[in-house]
Amino acid sequence: MELDESEFYNQLLDYNNILYLCHRNADPDALGSAFALKEAVGGTIGVSSQEQELNSRDCS
């Protein structure tokens, strides 16, 4: 199933709690993309620490 940008955006709005999970040692592109999605749609940005634990940050 393919979605265009507006369909993807509308489907994201159906969710109450979105987590954008970046890979460990995320580069600026990954962090910037996660931040842009958080600002546009809402949600939380998460990063994986060196100890393999999930750390969630609200970058308000």
- Rounded to an integer in angstroms, the radius of gyration calculated over CA atoms is 13 Å
Biggest sheet, spatial arrangement of strands: 1-2-3
Query: What is the strand tally?
Result: 3
Beta-strand percent range: 15-25%
Mean pLDDT: 82
Cα-to-Cα separation, first versus last residue: 34 Å
Weakly predicted, low-confidence segments: none
The global form is elongated
- Structural class by SSE content: alpha+beta
Order of helices and strands: HEHEE
The number of helices is 2
The biggest sheet, with number of strands, parallel, antiparallel or mixed sense and barrel status, is: 3 strands, mixed
Helix proportion range: 25-40%
Give me a quick take on this structure.
The protein contains two helices and three strands; from the N terminus they run αβαββ. It has 60 residues and is of the alpha+beta class. The protein has a domain at 18-57.
Topology:
Layout: H1 5-12, E1 19-22, H2 28-41, E2 44-48, E3 54-57
